[in-house]
Amino acid sequence: MPSRLCLCVRPFGRGKARIAIWIPAGDWLIFSHMFLSVFDIFKIGIGPSSSHTMGPMTAARRFVDKLRNVPSRENIRRIRSELYGSLAFTGKGHGSDRAVLLGLLGYEPATLDVADAEAAMQQLAKTKSLHLAGLPPIAFDPQADLVFEYGPPLPGHPNGMRFLAFDDSGMLQVAETYYSIGGGFVVSAEEQHVPPPDSEDAGGCPFPFASANAMLEMAHASGLSISQMKRSNEEATRTPAEVGAGTARIWRAMSACIERGLATDGVLPGGLNVSRRAPRMFKQMREEKSSNRLQPHAATDWLYLYAMAVNEENAAGGRVVTAPTNGAAGVVPAVIRYYLDHCVGADPARIEDFLLTAAAIGGLIKHNASISGAEAGCQGEVGSAAAMAAAGLCEVLGGTPEQVENAAEIALEHHLGMTCDPVAGLVQVPCIERNGLGAIKAVTAASIALRGDGSHFMPLDNCIAAMRETGEAMSTKLKETSLGGLAVNLPEC
Questions:
Q1: Cβ(218)–Cβ(208) under 8 Å?
Q2: Residue 27 in this model has a pLDDT that exceeds 80
Q3: The pLDDT of residue 477
Q4: Which of 4, 247, 324, 413 stands the most exposed, by the fewest C-beta atoms within 10 Å?
Q5: Alpha-carbon distance 103 to 86, whole Å?
Q6: 447 or 15, which is more confident?
Q7: Plot region of 480 (φ>0 → left; ψ -120 to 50 → alpha; else → beta)
Q8: 427 near 310, Cβ under 8 Å?
Q9: Are residues 238 and 161 part of one domain?
Q10: What is the rounded distance in angstroms from the CA atom of residue 30 to the CA atom of residue 18?
Q11: Residue 4, domain extent
């Protein structure tokens, strides 16, 4: 099976979640069982948002690729882009407009060269024309042809967008609707409505668990840990060396993001004039450590600091890793760094086990609920990240599969109901601090689980279902539209 696959997830709806995979040759494989790779959950990209920045960039790039393959491509003379729902209400604060331009210019989040991209956007603003390989010159005025539609969202998801291509006479030649469904995942309207399969297909994965209960049953039957099962699934399509190199690359990107955040001063963009706090806090804590004035809770301060560093970088549009989203990108790397720096017996070789376990939990949440703030609120973002980090830490500290599942449940349970209400549509207030507190909850959840035997009252599956139902019941004002909550209760001065 090819390694470059397009995954389609049908979110929400009890018992309806499924994944369709499109192979570039044009064939569809549809799985009732679920397999999301660790490299789908953790994607290297840019800030400030996976759903509002990386998603629209990917969708715009896909539309351009689609134009290259239509018979009428020589007739295309103008493109129009329309952003709906949460993408409209908070798109400017999240950089969605900039992301669409970059995608139309052919850039991808994982490989974006910022300096080159800025020059290309300046040229586009001047010429109001796209010059793309395999296509004629295409008119695109960023001021007129990129439209924020503040009416009702498109039917498939709160993060919807349409791209339209016209000929010289203004006649529509090509149209496509895309949905950015969280974590940088993008599906077209057509992909969302792939007919259900006649039979279940696990896709060749040896451990095709689609629920936490199935995961525990397979762990018990096989005698393997969650990370070992997840590794076996990854190695169904990749060599062990490829898996190892890929997870190492993910951690390098995470670690580099922490270091940049600790070293970079300044004011975050967007107009709120929020100052970066991580460098100042880092300096204070190093001084306290050197003078032996650390408080007993200093380890928690370091944990919070690591998460803050990542999310300040994300808010500035820096390179981050979805974990599982950009808005929640600080939790997992902060807990890994905490493990390495503060946990007795920490072993860098086990970072891969941490990431694999976290990805297994993240995949379950995405499959059975959502990781999109526009769909589930911040419980779907920071809550999911905390569950993933708690599971990963529990695994590398010697937890059993039952304890790992328990750790994830504790962390997720205590984020239920958390709204997504970013002030001014920026991934700054309260997002940066929420990541720090999410990391603290993750470590606490892992510690609690490790002090038990894995038995507990509320199964993770039920907690995920509660999160899904809570998201469905939550007001749209509290799901990444900046129309309620903290976003409308601002200081008067």
A1: no
A2: no
A3: 96
A4: 4
A5: 19
A6: 447
A7: left
A8: no
A9: no
A10: 8
A11: 1-32
Measured CA distances, 234 to 37, 378, 396, 466 (Å)? 7, 29, 19, 29
If you search the block for the tokens 């149209």, which residue do you land on? 175
User: Encoding tokens for residue 93?
Assistant: 């604060």
Is residue 14 very low, low, confident or very high in pLDDT (cuts 50, 70, 90)?
Answer: very low
Could you identify the residue written with the tokens 């759903």? 51
Residue 77 phi, psi dihedral angles, 5° rounding? -125, -15
Residues 252 and 179 in one domain: no
Cβ atoms within 10 Å of 72's Cβ, excluding its own: 12
The CATH number given to whatever domain includes residue 167 is 3.30.1330.90
Distances (CA, A) of 477 to 49, 148, 472: 19, 17, 12
Query: pLDDT digit string (tens) for 194-234?
Result: 544 332 234 589 999 999 999 999 999 999 999 999 999 99
Counting every residue written for the chain, the total comes to 493
Closest to 384 (Cα-Cα) out of 428, 425, 434: 434
Maximum pairwise Cα distance, the chain: 75
Summarised one tens digit per residue, pLDDT across range 416-473 is 999 999 999 999 999 999 999 999 999 999 999 999 999 999 999 999 999 999 999 9
Same domain, 313 and 405: yes
Average pLDDT of the residues in 328-355: 98
Alpha helices in 68-130 (DSSP H): 86-89, 91-94, 96-104, 114-127
Query: Residues near 483 by Cβ (< 8 Å), separated by ≥ 6?
Result: 89, 476, 477
- 38: tokens are 């660790």
